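Ribose import ATP-binding protein RbsA
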Amino acid sequence: MGKSDVATAGAADFHDLAPALAVTGLSKSFPGVKALDDVSLSVRPGEVLALLGENGAGKSTLIKVLAGIHKADSGQIEIDGVPQDFTNPADALDAGIKVVFQEIALIPEFSVAENMFLEDHLAGKANLVNWREIHRRAQEIFDRAGFALNTRAKVKDLSVSEQQLVEISRAMARDARIVIMDEPTSSLTPAEVTHLFGVINRLRKLGIAIVYVSHKLEEIFEIADTCVVLRDGRWVSTKPTSEHTPASLVKDMVGREITSLFPHSDRTVGREIVQVEDLSSKRLDDISFHVRAGEVVGFFGLMGAGRTEVAKAIVGFDPITKGRIRIDGEDLKPHSTVRSKALGIGLLSEDRKTEGLMLDGSVTRNMTLAALDQFTRNGLMDHRAETKQAEGFVDRFAIKLARLGQPIRNLSGGNQQKVLLSRWLMFGLKAVVLDEPTRGIDVGAKAEIFALIDELAAQGLAVILMTSEMPELLGLSDRIYVLSEGRMTGEFTRENATQEEILDAAIR
């Protein structure tokens, strides 16, 4: 079937087509680790193939081999049945593979059209850039794909989702046959996710094969035709998405049954620990709420709604212009992180790598940082006591590591979060604020973090959960507050909360 035939075939017809991309027996090793071990998969024109697995499963390595960044040790890559031998990213682009990485690689000061033709500026007379032709070609691609973009707009003025469209348009400008999307919705609002899925469906109708990488299972069941699961660098399964349930997909990914992704133990809700009245700041307007001991209270809002601002304000990190914050009956005055720590409230930041962790520090030191006074005698550190305490939390939370002295940057995202939780529990908190605690974490680690959150509440902590993930919000929260543009626009109990009502409150 030729390219024009593919373009007229519906998404349901891709099973009859030969693979656009076929990978056979791919292996790749780095010093001390075999990242890929005899991996095979194929994706057809018009098919959306979900590539799944925990962190460390081999997904990133496979993507980089397909992008020409790494060269495989063995195995074969074929595009439209033709064997390929990529020595650099330009080879992969020329062969028809385009990767839209999580970190978008565009030049902010250049226009949309300039970014689309970075690798291949169209020459006119006297070998000068033919700007008119560049904008004409860009508009032609937008018309074909149904993208509402201005070819002359600067990339810096576009939203994240619009920048993704520019990346996809670059792929179409190079006649890409295969587009690989690596965590494309990590920074998108629900409305932008819906728009992206519409774009993906248009690409399918144009006969473009899509490899879609995501930790978000609800997205997989909405957009993917086929699921390929990797574990520890090896192929585990290839099945139509329709043959999977969330439980079966998780089992393939983690290698074990997870009976309940969102545990909710019986627990006693006690006195009010966090009381916030008329809180205002540069970004917040008269926010009031309360959280009781043994309760998980979720906060939801679209991007820019003020979740992170609330999180940082109530632990004394961000300044406020008015309002009252009390922790277990005591005022947060002076408004500082030193005072909030003394009162017993801590924050797991959304950006753990820059605001939570000392990446080159050891696991032990990152874990004990808030509680160093416990291990200090006459100005000297009791390293034996520090190590013993750290070992206890490693065992308790099943933190996977080579040794306590290794740099924490070498741990997976899920294990880094467990270390941060251990830090605050070691210190001894009454309340903890968790800002996007599962961002960038695979589904197996998510299940473990969810269980830990439930355990914290069961131990009597007041837990404040800031999340943009609707399943996480509904599955973990006893009560839910909704923010929109720095204002409180809704409050729901676990029993009466629905996705539709929460989203409605989020756009008020």
